[in-house]
Design a protein that fits this description.
Blueprint lengths: L5 H20 L10 E8 L5 E8 L3 H13 L1 H11 L7 E6 L2 H25 L1
Parallel strand pairs: 2-3
Antiparallel strand pairs: 1-2
Helix pairs in contact: 1-3
Length: about 120
Amino acid sequence: MRKGSIKSSVVNSEVLRALAEIIRSEIKDPRVPEFTSVVAVNVAPDLKNCEAYISVLGDDAKAADALKGLNSASGYIRKCLADKLNMRHTPDIHFHIDQSIAYGVDMSHRIDEVISEDNRRHVEN
């Protein structure tokens, strides 16, 4: 399976859907909050490894706790994933915190600051 192929994108989307459902309904770890979402998934072409990017509503401490909880439950999550998906190999899952939402919010604030500064300069002139 080549990276960027149709099969690769189908596998990624199915794994993402199944992971989101597993985290939402089957993980009972108190460190993993209710508002934990799977943002993106990248399954290796050989189907042996999977990089899952998660987003957690809350501060960095909650995100770190959720990451610890998910990493400790990765074996159980892999078993649930194998039950849900009919794949030749069930990948090992490695969770990472996705910072893209926080980055987007930060950039939006910076753009707003630049616009307000520009408007203030036009008013003064």
